[in-house]
C-alpha cells in the first residue's frame, strides 16, 4: 500500500492558467500507461508548470487539469516533441474523443482539514 496522500494541487497566487483536458478513451490501451507516466514526468520539467489534478469517472470520462504560470509555459508544453508524438498516437489509438480548454485563473484558495487529536 502506498503512503502517497491524495490531495488537490495547492492554490497558487493568481493569475495563472489551467489547461483542462477532458477525454473518453478507446478500449485499446496498449502503451497508454507507460506514455502517460512519461508525460507526467516530462511536464514537470517545463518552467512555469505548477501541478496537475486528474480524475476518471466509472463511466470512463477522464479529466486532467494542468496548472501553468503563464501562456509561454503552456506553449512550451504544447510544442514538446514527445508530447506531440503522444497526441498523435492518442488521436490514432487511445481516444474516442477529447476536449481541451485553456482558462485564466483569477481567484484561487485552498482548504485542508487539520486532523484532530483524541
TrEMBL record:
Q: Which domain of life is it from?
A: Bacteria
Question: Per its record, how is this protein called by name?
Answer: Antibiotic biosynthesis monooxygenase
Entries under Pfam families matching the protein: ABM
Domain ABM residue range list: 15-89
Question: By its UniProt entry, which InterPro entries does this protein fall under?
Answer: ABM_dom, Dimeric_a/b-barrel, Jasmonate_Hydroxylase-like
Instruction: List the GO molecular function terms.
Output: monooxygenase activity
The keyword Mitochondrion belongs to this UniProt entry's keyword annotation: no
Q: Which PANTHER family does the UniProt entry name for this protein?
A: ABM DOMAIN-CONTAINING PROTEIN (PTHR37811:SF2), BLL5343 PROTEIN (PTHR37811)
Which UniProt key words apply to this protein?
A: Monooxygenase, Oxidoreductase
At the highest ranks, the source species' classification is: Bacteria, Bacillati, Actinomycetota, Actinomycetes, Kitasatosporales
May I ask which residue range the UniProt record assigns to the signal sequence? none
Checking SUPFAM superfamilies in the record gives: Dimeric alpha+beta barrel
Amino acid at each position: 500500500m502506498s503512503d502517497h496522500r491524495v490531495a488537490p494541487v495547492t492554490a497558487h497566487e493568481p493569475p495563472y492558467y489551467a489547461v483542462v483536458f477532458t477525454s473518453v478513451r478507446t478500449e485499446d490501451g496498449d502503451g497508454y500507461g507507460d506514455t502517460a507516466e512519461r508525460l507526467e514526468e516530462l511536464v514537470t520539467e517545463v518552467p512555469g508548470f505548477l501541478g496537475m489534478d486528474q480524475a476518471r469517472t466509472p463511466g470512463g470520462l477522464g479529466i486532467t487539469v494542468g496548472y501553468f504560470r503563464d501562456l509561454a509555459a503552456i506553449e512550451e508544453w504544447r510544442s514538446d516533441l514527445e508530447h506531440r508524438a503522444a497526441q498523435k498516437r492518442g488521436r490514432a489509438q487511445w481516444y474516442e474523443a477529447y476536449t481541451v480548454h485553456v482558462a485564466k485563473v483569477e481567484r484561487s484558495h485552498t482548504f485542508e482539514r487539520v486532523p484532530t487529536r483524541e
